[in-house]
Amino acid sequence: xxxxxxxxxxxxxxxxxxxxxxxxxxxxxxxxxxxxxxxxxxxxxxxxxxxxxxxxxxxxxxxxxxxxxxxxxxxxxxxxxxxxxxxxxxxxxxxxxxxxxxxxxxxxxxxxxxxxxxxxxxxxxx
Length: 126
Description:
The chain has about 130 residues and is mainly β. Helix content is about 10%, strand content about 50%.
């Protein structure tokens, strides 16, 4: 779902730090919407929990028992939809002046998305 893979954000490179304490994981992250293609009116499931292991964050998700949720689950199961993206807010950055990379050292998830427009290419749904 998330990693320390650098991505282009507003013309700069950004890394979501996975150092201890950088990512806020609390009650808010135990029931977040799973959206299709970043559309807030297209809820296809729920993120039930997050787990950080090393420099990666994994999500335990449950697809909704709706036509949209079941269709998305089928596309994931068939490996047609394989990417995920994360919605997050950054509270504090640190600039690495040697590489011009902004490292988010205080950030939190607020949602997860599956679809055709992933932000981080190594975020995988399966």
